[in-house]
């Protein structure tokens, strides 16, 4: 691969992980809004940084990142059936309806957007058909794997892009809730870089049978969010 | 436009300008002509508008089924949710389209926002921007993308114009100057004055005077 091709691949990675890319993630707080309105307030940036690490280490890493890695392998083998299997497995591992819906809505729209400029990619077309036929749900990590592959972004970098985007979405929600200042947000993102990298490395090759997530306190926050009558975020 | 796509009407405007009430006035008039609408209501910090419309239009009047009113949060960015990144809105609208093939129109209400709000053409085929007279008669003169570019400008609360020092003649003159030949309508969403005009615009310019999908349908019940 020459330097020009590498640059295109890296720019594509920047494009997919840019908060301006239309995924709708700016509407999600992943339960942070419920925490904000509870009596367990986060009082400083370090606490938020630690909370994001919990999300990454116990939810997004072993479940979403692993699903992305498995999907990527099946995409390269053009194995739609196995890809759909990963989609169904991850969907079933998301117990909170708001979180499930947000993931599938982001996933289907990312596919649609990338398909508007990558028009000849058989696995992308077939996965979209599977979603329309209700055989797959279009969860975001699987959709992102399909789009990353279509844009020539390698598996590991696709994982980095996903965890980075998630981190930015939580920091963005915290900023809009007034939990921290904008420089604090960038400091948190900077401090989380080693964790993002390590968690992707640890989980991107995890087999489907080893996928897990266990963050009951976060699950409860996300359930509490579903029950809030007045809210700014969809999750 | 694909054959699956149901006509979509976006309604934007500042907080308290009357977006929800405009929908509550228009939907019964459309229903009396046999047209069935679905509603996606974006709210900045609550689901109050969606819950109110579900109660007034579905539960109490039975004009549409309750699952045809969906509330959506916008992450505090109402303009982004209908313009720069309408992903969540498009997703919800597509879900509604696939579940309810018999509806004639989908109304998408933006969260209350500023005068630069516009709708992505991928989300809405037609865009109504509503302002009210309570801020005085400086609008539409102050312009803003919403006022300038919408397909139909609706000026609400004309009954209180004398009490807030708003000159409707000035507003009409400025609307003509700013918008050229594009239409505007003066309304009072409380009394229903002017709403028939808005309904006619929708039937002519959004539905292209197509007959209702289900012949002889009047309301949900």
Explain this structure.
Chain A is mainly alpha-helical and about 240 residues long. Chain A contains 10 helices and no strands. Chain B is an alpha/beta fold and about 220 residues long. Chain B has a single domain, classed as Rossmann fold. In chain B, helix 1 (about 20-30) runs parallel beside helix 2 and helix 1 packs across helix 8 (about 195-205). Chain B is globular, with a radius of gyration of 16 Å. The interface of A and B includes residues 26, 27, 102, 109 and 173 of A.
What brief labels describe this structure?
heterodimer; A: mainly alpha; Urease accessory protein UreF; B: alpha/beta; Rossmann fold; seven-stranded parallel β-sheet; 8 helices; 7 strands
Mean pLDDT of chain B: 92
CATH homology-level superfamily of chain A: Urease accessory protein UreF
Shape of chain B: globular
Give start-end ranges of low-pLDDT stretches of chain B: none
Strands of chain B, count? 7
Largest sheet of chain B: 7 strands, parallel
Number of domains of chain A: 1
Give the proportion of residues in helices of chain A. Answer: 55-70%
Number of domains of chain B: 1
Measured on Cα atoms, how large is the radius of gyration of chain A?
Answer: 17 Å
CATH class of chain B: Alpha Beta
Per CATH, which architecture of chain A?
Orthogonal Bundle
**Sequence of strands across the biggest β-sheet of chain B:** 3-2-4-1-5-6-7
The chain-level structural class of chain A is mainly alpha
CATH fold title of chain A: Urease accessory protein UreF
Instruction: Compute the separation of the termini of chain B in Å.
Output: 31 Å
Low-pLDDT runs of chain A: none
How many helices of chain A? The count is 10
Strand content of chain A: under 5%
Count of extended strands of chain A? 0
In DSSP terms, counting alpha (H) and pi (I) runs of 4 or more, how many helices of chain B?
8
């Amino acid at each position: 691969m020459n330097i020009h091709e590498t640059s295109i691949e890296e720019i594509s990675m920047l494009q997919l992980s840019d908060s301006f890319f239309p995924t709708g993630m700016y509407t999600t707080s992943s339960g942070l809004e419920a925490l904000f309105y509870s009596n367990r307030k986060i009082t400083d940036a370090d606490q938020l940084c630690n909370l994001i690490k919990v999300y990454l280490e116990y939810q997004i890493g072993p479940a979403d990142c692993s699903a992305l890695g498995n999907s990527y392998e099946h995409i390269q083998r053009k194995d739609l059936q196995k890809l759909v299997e990963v989609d169904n497995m991850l969907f079933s591992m998301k117990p909170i309806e708001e979180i499930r819906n947000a993931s599938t809505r982001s996933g289907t729209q990312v596919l649609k957007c990338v398909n508007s400029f990558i028009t000849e990619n058989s696995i992308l077309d077939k996965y979209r058909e599977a979603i329309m036929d209700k055989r797959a749900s279009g969860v975001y990590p699987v959709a992102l794997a399909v789009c990353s592959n279509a844009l020539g972004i390698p598996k590991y970098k696709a994982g980095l892009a996903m965890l980075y985007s998630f981190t930015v979405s939580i920091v963005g929600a915290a900023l809009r809730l007034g939990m921290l200042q904008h420089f604090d947000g960038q400091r948190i993102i900077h401090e989380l870089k080693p964790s993002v990298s390590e968690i992707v490395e640890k989980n991107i090759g995890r087999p489907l049978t080893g996928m897990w997530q266990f963050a009951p306190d976060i699950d409860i926050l996300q359930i509490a969010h579903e029950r809030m009558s007045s809210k700014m975020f969809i999750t | 436009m694909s054959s699956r796509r149901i006509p979509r009407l976006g309604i934007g405007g500042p907080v308290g300008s009357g977006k929800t009430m405009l929908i509550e006035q228009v939907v019964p008039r459309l229903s009396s002509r046999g047209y069935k609408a679905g509603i996606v209501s974006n709210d900045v910090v609550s689901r109050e508008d969606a819950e109110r419309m579900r109660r007034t239009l579905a539960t109490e009047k039975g004009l549409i089924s309750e699952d045809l009113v969906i509330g959506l949060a916008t992450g505090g960015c109402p303009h982004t949710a209908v313009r720069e990144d309408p992903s969540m809105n498009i997703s919800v609208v597509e879900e509604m389209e696939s579940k309810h093939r018999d509806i004639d129109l989908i109304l998408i209400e933006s969260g209350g926002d500023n005068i630069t709000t516009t709708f992505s053409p991928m989300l809405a085929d037609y865009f109504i921007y509503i302002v009210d007279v309570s801020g005085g008669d400086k609008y539409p003169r102050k312009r803003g993308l919403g006022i300038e570019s919408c397909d139909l400008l609706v000026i609400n609360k004309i009954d209180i114009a004398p009490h807030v020092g708003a000159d409707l003649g000035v507003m009409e003159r400025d609307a003509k100057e700013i918008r050229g030949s594009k239409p505007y309508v003066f309304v009072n969403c409380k009394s229903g004055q002017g709403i028939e005009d808005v309904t006619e615009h929708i039937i002519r310019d959004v539905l292209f005077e197509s007959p209702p999908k289900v012949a002889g349908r009047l309301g949900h019940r």
